[in-house]
């Protein structure tokens, strides 16, 4: 399944570059989003390098999830798609 990168996890003064908020099509409630917690995600950079992460928690009530990656994601990735695997790690 494809997911769209919405934003970095942030607060008023800080931004965490390795934690992202993701939105998935047809996932519009927190109950549906809970099914994806624990799944692996993979982001491919422009140079075809893969950055792996895992969905850790839901975010809000509209079906978004929070993913934690092994290293920071570049700012150009906002709005791009990434792959959510079907199996658990």
Report the top-level CATH class: Mainly Beta
| CATH topology type | Thrombin, subunit H
User: Could you list the spans in which at least 5 consecutive residues all have pLDDT below 50?
Assistant: none
Q: Strand tally, please? A: 6
Helix content: under 10%
- Name the CATH homologous superfamily: translation elongation factor selb, chain A, domain 4
Main-sheet strand order equals 1-2-5-4-3-6
Shape: globular
Determine the N-to-C terminus distance: 16 Å
Average pLDDT rating = 92
Q: What would you call the structural class?
A: mainly beta
Number of H/I helices: 1
Largest sheet: 6 strands, antiparallel, barrel
Please tell me the total number of domains: 1
Beta-strand content bin: over 45%
> Can you tell me the CATH architecture?
Beta Barrel
Order of helices and strands: EEHEEEE
From the alpha-carbon coordinates, what is the Rg to the nearest angstrom?
Answer: 12 Å
Report on the architecture of this protein.
This protein is mainly β. The chain has a single domain (2-87), classed as translation elongation factor selb, chain A, domain 4 (Thrombin, subunit H). The chain is built from one helix and six strands. The chain has a six-stranded antiparallel β-barrel. The longest helix has 5 residues, at 30-34. The radius of gyration is 12 Å and the shape is globular.
